[in-house]
Write a structure and sequence with these properties.
Shape of chain A: elongated
Number of helices of chain A: 13
Low-confidence stretches of chain A: none
CATH topology of the largest domain in chain A: Rossmann fold
CATH class of the largest domain in chain A: Alpha Beta
Distance between the termini of chain A: 88 Å
Number of strands of chain A: 11
Mean pLDDT of chain A: 93
Oligomer: homodimer
Radius of gyration of chain A: 23 Å
Helix content of chain A: 25-40%
Strand order of the largest sheet of chain A: 3-2-1-4-5-10-11
């Protein structure tokens, strides 16, 4: 019943801070099974398979695997290639030639779609083969998963950035905007909310792609918060859209860049933040307005990785190997929340995950669509890890004035 | 000989991740001296003095002071106000009214200039008064200091960001630019160099304000590195200037914003990064070019504070109190490197620090002006703290190809 042959593990799409935990989990678990002749890593995702760029991870030391597991961003390198029928044919020529019988692909919804296509092709070719998708994405937008490996660490980075930014804008007031990754789902932007400890702390406003971004409403919100607190800290998703579902960033961009999956480039440019900043200066007449685009540090910052995220990422990799090698099954590993706080794993049909996008449920967003609810904060809190920092304020009494000018 | 009266502590200019360590060091030390009737914190720097906004830190708990010390960004809030003669007169009316005899101002070179003006005014008014400048700045640009409190933590943040960014661009190649804070001095930008572990790691190019930024040279450098490595990771100071000392960012900016010290706004906008990114796309024809502006997280990120920086920031605050309260002296606390690695402190005349800027010495920059030397790395290494992370790579052998297409 168990297939004898090789394992290939690959990583696709944007990296995360814990994607190598999943890779190492799958490698270490696969190496325990006697029917596995070798464990290969494909370099640059499916490109590495087609080009026969395999690293023999059966010859990697356990120590170095553990060190790589703690290192952010795909250790096997990545790709944005989305295989079509022709590409899959090439993949199978290589799989057969190398006697590969198990394929573990770590990625988001685009990568899960790749696993689905490759697996359909295997079935159609009557090649005996198990393919499992291992979830990862900082966007937290995979169907069925309570949350995805990579999200907790990115969320921790964003919220830690806002802890400092909130203190900074208390010290030197003004309006501050941070543009955060998230094309269709606002989960990562919403994580900024965890920086708010005291009533007047920021972020004061949070805008996500799930709700239409109306410029006049936005300006009214900013004015209200600025008048109330003397400052305003704002978190905005890069993927915010107007009421007609037109991306606000795309409206601005002169040279729109599109990838193989048809996605417009949103990250790696300060255009959206600068536009919002100018809008506030011009329409509200506020002098000190600053906009940062948090950028690539969000998905791979080594200094604020969630230990809960690390453990879960390791486990989804291990579970993928167990489902394939012990149970001879295909599919996508899904993470369920089964306690407060505990998780468990199951394998689902890849078609339930592939190419679909989960967005924030309505209960996580307030009625006006400019902030999150406590339900969201309760959802996120355990994912940030066990030693999450918090900001403290002086609270001594003020001195009575003498000159009273 | 020892003056009986109150202490006022204030914080000025841009926050750092450890500026509250210095504040708490000065508060805790001042509270030990019997001649000190109260320890006040001025809210919003010198503005708080003029407006009699004092918090009575003699009534703050030691626990809360320690918690605030570990929190980034000025706990007493900050200001960009630079006092003139009239303003100093107002300051002294308040100082006299409250019987303030000691003034500790934590800040950079603009703030040290404030201390100098205030102290000159005190002498001219025959008011018996001790004023000490406590150094802080992420820019590391204060004269005489080997380095300044705040720099180590900001440097650690920048280098940790580049560890992830370097891995990210290995996984998904292209050109990546990060614009880093630093108006006149390139120390913080140069910190990106610590992310380079292996020969082909980024950052591959580093541009600082100390050397003229020549567009054609820049493009030739990028082309060379991109052809060599298939990718290019670049660190650029926000303050880079052309051969005529004209700021590259200011050339681009339509609405130039100028603060009370005559400084042009450089941070809080993605304009410089986007311009350099477009230049590479257009002139070199490289498709995937991304630019991030690291932004305000650099100076107040709670997740990657250097423990060495924390200790030193605490010590400069303590030493300031000791110089004033034990020795009845004025001046600026300076940090010397006295071992490999050890520091010691001394007090210098404020005029030696005030309004001056230290830049990177020639031995820290390579001949072409597009990278740092090992001398710089040896200088920076101990400042990053004792548990600095490092990235690891897989190093198993590649598998021989079978199909060899």
């Amino acid at each position: 019943m168990q297939l004898t042959g090789k394992v290939v593990i690959a990583q696709g799409g944007g990296p995360t801070a814990v994607i190598n935990q999943s890779m190492v989990g799958a490698v270490l678990e696969s190496r325990k099974f006697p029917q596995i002749t070798r464990v290969y890593g494909a370099i640059n995702g499916v490109e590495g398979i087609v080009n026969e760029q395999f690293m023999d991870l059966s010859q990697e030391t356990t120590n170095n695997l553990e060190k790589v597991a703690a290192t952010p961003a795909s250790g096997l390198l990545s790709t944005r290639v989305k295989p079509d029928e022709k590409y899959c044919e090439e993949i199978f020529k290589v799989m057969k030639a190398h006697d590969v019988r198990y394929f573990f692909y770590i990625g988001g919804n685009d990568s899960s779609d790749t696993v689905r296509i490759v697996n359909d092709y295997a079935k159609a070719s009557h090649y005996d083969f198990r393919a499992i998708h291992i979830p990862k994405t900082i966007d937290n937008d995979l169907m069925l998963n309570d949350h995805t490996p990579g999200y907790g660490s990115a969320a921790r980075y964003v919220s830690e950035a806002f802890i400092g930014i909130n203190q900074d804008t208390r010290a030197l007031p003004g309006v501050y905007i941070a543009v955060i990754m998230g094309r269709h789902a606002g989960f990562l932007t919403a994580a900024a909310s965890m920086a708010k400890k005291y009533e007047d702390d920021g972020p004061h406003l949070i805008y996500v792609p799930e709700r239409p971004f109306i410029v006049d409403d936005f300006l009214a919100d900013v004015k209200e918060q600025y008048e109330k607190h003397g400052r305003c800290v704002i978190a905005v998703s890069e993927g915010i859209e107007d009421e007609n579902h037109v991306s606000i960033a795309a409206k601005l961009s002169k040279n729109v860049e599109v990838d193989a999956h048809g996605n417009i480039q949103l990250s790696g440019s300060g255009a959206l933040g600068d536009m919002l900043s100018n809008l506030i200066k011009e329409r509200l007449g506020i002098g000190r307005v600053r906009a940062d685009t948090l950028g690539y540090a969000q998905r791979n910052f080594i200094g604020s990785i969630s230990n809960v995220d690390q453990i879960e990422a390791r486990e989804v990799g291990e579970k993928a190997a167990q489902y394939a090698l012990l149970y001879n099954r295909d599919g996508s590993v899904v993470m369920d929340r089964v306690g407060d706080y505990a998780v468990d794993y199951r394998l689902v049909d890849i078609a339930e995950i592939a190419g679909k996008t989960k967005t924030m449920p309505a209960e996580f967003l307030n009625a006006r669509g400019n902030n999150v609810t406590d339900a969201f904060k309760n959802y996120l809190r355990p994912l940030l890890g066990t030693n999450y920092p918090t900001a403290h304020r002086l609270r001594a009494p003020m001195v009575e004035k003498i000159l009273k000018k």
